[in-house]
TrEMBL record:
Start and stop residues of the TPR repeats: 475-508
Protein name: FANCG protein
Record domain Bacterial transcriptional activator: where: 455-537
GO BP terms in the entry: interstrand cross-link repair
């Protein structure tokens, strides 16, 4: 409450500087918002000089103080306070405000040096060119202005590098992040910078450079586990599955251990780089995976690489984690690597069937079927077009809600139908053709709930993916049931299923081959030969093009597609060729 007096203002501003440093250091949390302390300090300076600035914003207030206050004794304290203000603005990503402040703090000679640095970042050049005021021996500081300047340089380079990385300007991001890596920071932050450098190089299409940066991050700080996660991602892109799985295994083991209590990363500095750089892109790049996410990735990669024994082990471990309240531990903001839980169950069933454990697969699928039964309406109408009202219209929110509800119902239907599909193939593996036919029929019966209105070709884009999956499940179930009808000697019923399958997926080589086999078994050899010749004349490219249409299959359906492959192509082809030769000889006589 005392009036401001010029003789004691240097001491007062130094005390304010130390107080703000101590407040930030004691909280040890990211700097946010404005600081009222700096504002009050500047107003005290203006008051002592007979001026006022109550109505001014912080940038205008700094401009008024630095342009109008010329008292020599106040220059050093004001510069120190300016460095603190720059830290607050950097933490808020107000780079323009920081640049403007250092332009006010710098002399003409300083600005000349900054402009002479061609090709360098303007903000970094200005901070580096700024002359740190001398520190009086009688006024001790909790953190020297020189050290604070170095931290500001590092934080500014790091922050701008992240901004360029997010904007896709990778060469500029690489340069700025390399500048930050050579700056003043703790090992923890240095490892984070190297991790970001690795991500930048990966996005630039330089996987080997990315691996060098990521390995450097782990050398600097072995607890920087996001770097290990990115290492696995790079090896995945390179197709080096063995090394990728090793990296994921190390990551899973590391996440399962209780890390030692980390010592203070920078015990001598109250303001540190980590308190100034906290952007969403950094949070995303350094996101720590939950152990269950890594366990799922291990299972998924093993299944994709046909390491079914390892995949089964990982999937069963993951399913056991569900009993530990997994949903409460994994983020639900879309950043998790986990798919929907029913899909994980279906992938596990797929792995179990391939590993020769069909009975276990049937049990796992029963879980999916029982938990989705009550979530599916009796009839699902999918319109040819869903007119989407503009967001500004009153009905937009309602339409979005109905669309979301319909999408969820279609997903539940797909999961349950896929459960029956997997059970059908599992019973087939067990040699129980009648039970297999029952499960395939249940799958097809489920899919009758979906009513496609219109031509069925121009489905609304929002539901196209779900409809495509349902159609593929229907196709695979028809092929599966048809094969089991053949096993049971019910050739006419098998023929009908294969014909329906070809209607869904014209030109499919498996359906076409099974159709020919069914005709052959029905002793309709002339028709079988004609169909065989027709499909043989189709180029492989046409079939591939037909199969390649649409989106990639969900992982849980890939094994079903493989099981639907026709296994007797060569014997059937020889039989038909022999028949055609015999027919040709009869005709020539």
């Amino acid at each position: 409450g005392l009036p401001a007096a010029l003789p004691v203002l240097p001491l007062e501003l130094t005390v304010l500087y130390n107080f703000l440093l101590f407040t930030v250091g004691a909280s040890d949390s990211a700097i946010k918002g404005e600081t009222e302390g700096i504002r009050q300090g500047l107003l005290r300076v203006l008051e002592a000089c007979g001026a006022c600035g109550q109505d001014l914003g912080m940038e205008e207030l700094w401009q008024k103080v630095l342009q109008e206050v010329t008292v020599e004794e106040l220059q050093a304290p004001l510069h120190r306070l300016g460095a603190l203000q720059a830290a607050w603005w950097l933490a808020a990503s107000r780079l323009g405000s920081v640049a403007g402040l250092f332009q006010l703090l710098s002399t003409a000679e300083d600005l000349g040096r900054a402009h002479c640095s061609e090709g360098q970042n303007k903000l970094l050049s200005m901070i580096k060119a700024w002359q740190v005021p001398p520190e009086g021996a009688s006024l001790p500081l909790l953190q020297s202005t020189k050290d604070l300047k170095e931290i500001l340089c590092t934080a500014a380079a790091f922050l701008q590098g992240l901004q360029e990385l997010e904007a896709g300007n990778f060469p500029s991001a690489l340069s700025l992040l390399q500048e930050a890596a050579g700056g003043f920071c703790s090992k923890k932050i240095l490892a984070q910078i190297y991790t970001c450098l690795g991500c930048c190089a990966q996005r630039m299409g330089k996987p080997q450079t990315a691996l060098q940066h990521l390995k450097r991050a782990l050398q600097v700080d072995f607890q920087c586990l996001p770097a290990l996660s990115h290492v696995a991602s790079v090896y995945h892109e390179l197709g080096e599955t063995d090394v990728e799985l090793q990296a994921l295994t190390l990551l899973y083991e590391a996440l399962g251990k209780n890390p030692p209590a980390a010592a203070s990363s920078s015990p001598y500095f109250l303001i540190r780089t980590e308190l100034l750089v906290h952007t969403p892109v950094l949070t995303s790049l350094l996101r720590h995976h939950h152990p269950s996410e890594v366990k799922y990735l291990l299972a998924q990669r093993c299944l994709q690489d046909r390491r079914v024994a390892d995949a089964v082990e990982h999937y069963l471990d993951f399913l056991s984690l569900l009993q530990e309240g997994l949903q409460q531990q994994v983020p639900l903001d879309g950043s998790s690597a986990l798919p929907r839980i029913p899909e994980v169950f279906l992938e596990a069933a797929s792995a179990l069937v391939q590993a020769g454990r069909p009975q276990d697969a049937i049990t796992v699928c029963e879980e999916v079927i029982s938990h989705t039964t009550d979530l599916i309406p009796r009839v699902l109408r999918v319109e040819e077009r869903l007119e989407q009202p503009e967001c500004s219209l009153p009905g937009a929110g309602l339409a979005d809600g109905l669309l979301s509800q319909k999408k969820e119902s279609l997903c539940c239907l797909a999961w349950r139908a896929a459960g029956y599909l997997h059970q059908g193939w599992a019973w087939a593996k067990l040699g129980e053709s009648k039970e297999a036919v029952t499960q395939f029929s249940r799958c097809l019966s489920d899919l009758l709930r979906v009513q496609l209105h219109g031509s069925g070709v121009k489905q609304t884009e929002n539901l196209q993916a779900e409809v495509e999956v349902l159609q593929k499940i229907r196709f695979l179930s028809l092929i599966g049931r048809g094969t089991q009808f053949l096993e049971l000697g019910r050739h006419k019923e098998a023929l009908l299923d294969f014909q329906h399958g070809l209607q869904i997926s014209p030109g499919d080589p498996a359906a076409a081959s099974y159709l020919v086999q069914a005709l052959w078994k029905l002793n309709r050899k002339q028709e079988a030969a004609a169909q065989w010749q027709k499909f043989s004349q189709c180029s492989p490219g046409e079939d591939g093009q037909q199969q390649g249409q649409g989106r990639p299959l969900p992982l849980y359906l890939v094994s079903c597609l493989e099981q639907a492959t026709f296994p007797h192509s060569e014997p059937l082809a020889r039989s038909i060729q022999d028949y055609l030769r015999a027919a040709a000889q009869d005709t020539s006589r």
